[in-house]
Amino acid sequence: MMFHNREVWAITWLTLEVTFAATLLSLILGIPLGTWLALTAFPGRKFLMALVNTGMGLPPVVVGLFVCLMLWRSGPLGSLHLIYTPTAIVIAQFVIACPIITGLTVSAIEQLNPRLRLQLLGLGASRSQLLWTLWREARLPLLAAVMAGYGGVISEVGASMMVGGNVRGHTRVLTTATVLETSKGNFAAAMALGMLLLLLAFIVNGMLTHLQQRRSPS
Q1: 198 belongs to a structural domain
Q2: Which of 55, 99, 206, 213 is the most buried (most CB within 10 A)?
């Protein structure tokens, strides 16, 4: 049976909430971490970069399994009672998006002219001024990293299904709702939800693309 309009709006709103939260958390950790990896030489850096690069291609079902085991009632974080909640979905999507944003941030910072950092240090720039200038110069690839991270979580279904349980009115998002309707043979409903998901992704990425392509004032 096709969803009622109120339920569709609730599913769409929850989808926006969890994907935005996961992407924001990934930015807060991923951009500073990626910048640090790009600018710092230390023992074990290659190993950490290998972990980040591996994380960029993690299968969502593996992430879902790992987070599920951590949040399960008998797991290390079971006392928090987060399994089958929107917070669990945010955690799983964060694990998916953070390596993507971190890895692309490393690439963005490493592509900058090495002389820029030396010039800034020579002019007496503070650490915060140095980082802000580097991020400003790399803003186009950094926005691409944001789009890639967001695209990774809004299209994800396996982890959300495993840790959220696809509970109606509580943890059901557009991807899991689409899978549910397909499994029931309600292809019209599944197509409608799928088109809504595509529209949502297009609007968000369209806004980010506008920011990316907008010319800086002279």
Answers
A1: yes
A2: 99
Average pLDDT over residues 172-178: 93
User: CA-CA distances (angstroms) from residue 217 to 9, 58, 113, 182, 212?
Assistant: 38, 39, 22, 48, 13
| DSSP conformational letter for 117 | H
Cα of 187 vs its chain's centroid, Å: 28
CB 23 within 8 Å of CB 153: yes
Structural domain containing residue 37: 5-213
The per-residue pLDDT for range 68-112, each reduced to its tens digit, is 999 999 999 999 999 999 999 999 999 999 999 999 999 999 999
**Tokens, residue 179:** 């899978």
> Do the domain assignments include residue 218?
no
- Under 8 Å CB-to-CB from 27, ≥6 apart: which residues? 101, 146, 149
**pLDDT value at position 1?**
42
Please name the residue that has the structure tokens 């690069």.
Answer: 53
| Structural domains in the chain (count) | 1
Q: What is the DSSP string of 28-69?
A: HHHHHHHHHHHH---TTHHHHHHHHHHHTT--HHHHHHHHHH
What pTM was computed for the model?
0.90
